[in-house]
Amino acid sequence: MNFGFGNFEITPIVDQLFYLDGGTMFGVVPKKLWSRLLPVDDQNLIPMACNLYLVKANDKNYLVDSGLGVDLSELEQKIYGASNNSALDEKLLSMNMSVEDIDVVLLTHLHTDHVGGSVRRKGDKFVTRFPNAIYYVQEREFADAIDPDERSKAAYSEDRLKALADSGQLKFIDGDTEIAPGIKAVLTGGHTAGHQGYEFTSGGETVVAYCDIIPMTGHVRIPYVASVDLFPLDTLRFKRKLLKRLVAEKLVVAFGHDHAVTLARLEEEKHKIIVKPLEEITTAK
Questions:
Q1: What percentage of the chain has pLDDT greater than the value 70?
Q2: Is 283 a residue whose pLDDT tops 80?
Q3: Least C-beta-crowded within 10 Å: which of 59, 188, 210, 224?
């Protein structure tokens, strides 16, 4: 299923499922509260998805994030509870496309679950998975990711990031930036210092992909902020303004990690924000 608006079209791609500790995703919120929103297993793990978004606009194909990819190490597979089964190639094939048809990869940030699929292993090194694409990321995000502190190091893959940098396909931006007509990158901070979201506007309709600011439907509650956010108060401030706008302007929001809902509108009912899905997906290939 895809969503057309104006001259743009967005197609959600559930690349694969993975599992993380529930407390990691909900921070200071007690398990008694957040566990009402998601199933949790006996190891306290919750199901999550790498949701990618293919946007056809301006006669180009844009891909928002690239997921975990197909070359996870044994350690990475354990960390994410994931396999190397990416659905992206199959989904593109069903649309008569391939990775060579991707013109632009819009990276929100450089954690492995968002950038791992940007490259793939060839022999003993990584090469870009989308050979004809330009990859966009905030310059500060790359600087922090390539030289992370001890707290953040496990979330990044130095080999993958160096391969991207050496490819000549990586383009740095600084702050809010118009990528193309109707496509804007917005620096959010919060999750990481260089975390950004994207807004797609055409025909009077806007779809926003703010990724790990509101990663899942449960995070439409303002205090529900992941414990891995480096600057949680910045996340709170940005989220507070964003949620008001999403409701008031009836924008469509793309969830980066929800395992059941990819695109939705938000409405306020009795002082509570209600998620109204445009599409529900229950499983990934």
A1: 98
A2: no
A3: 59
Q: Please name the residues in contact with 255: beta carbons below 8 A apart, sequence gap of 6 or more.
A: 51, 214, 215, 216, 217, 261, 262, 263, 264
For residue range 257-281, list pLDDT tens digits in order. 999 999 999 999 988 999 999 964 3
10 Å CB burial of residue 39 (0-12, 13-18, 19+) is: exposed
Bridge partners (DSSP) listed for residue 263: 254, 279
Specify whether the CB–CB gap between 257 and 49 falls below 8 A: yes
Residue located via tokens 């597979």: 77
Q: Which domains does the chain have, with CATH numbers?
A: 3-280 (3.60.15.10)
Q: Which helix (H) or strand (E) holds 145?
A: helix 139-146
Q: What is the mean predicted confidence (pLDDT) over 158-172?
A: 97
Residue for token pair 């401030």: 237
- As a whole number of angstroms, the distance between CA 225 and CA 218 comes to 10
The label of the residue with tokens 């989904």 reads: 91
